[in-house]
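Entry:
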Amino acid sequence: MKVSDLLNVNFIISELKGDEKEETINELIDLFKNDNRVIDIERVRTAVLEREKIMSTGVGKGFAIPHGKTNAINDIIAAFGKTKRPIEYQALDNQPVHLVFLLVGKDNLVSTHIKLLSRISRMMNKDEFREKLIDASSADEIINIFRKEEENYFEV
């Protein structure tokens, strides 16, 4: 499974509205309100926000990977959002966030969840990749940037 296989244009926001961490996370989770893979959207929200309380998922270099595991979904779900304006996220490097990748996995798919988080981190650590995402103007452009980046990666 590739990160780009999880994403589609319906789950990409090319300009996030929120200015703060929780607003941004909720904006991405709300994309799944009518998704048949989600059994209970509020349990998904709780899983992600509870994980965030443990330690900020703002990992540095302007990006965050809010994530959680729950059986309130039938399958792994992912969303991506970006903004040119800074989001205060209490990131580990104390810098604002511009790129946010939401990943929610099932409780019994821990290994896949960890592998996907690792891949997202590796991709986002590349300066050129992050710059392309920030400069992208549409969901279609964003998904194509992810696909192009993953051409040289093995399946998860």
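The longest helix spans residues 110-124.
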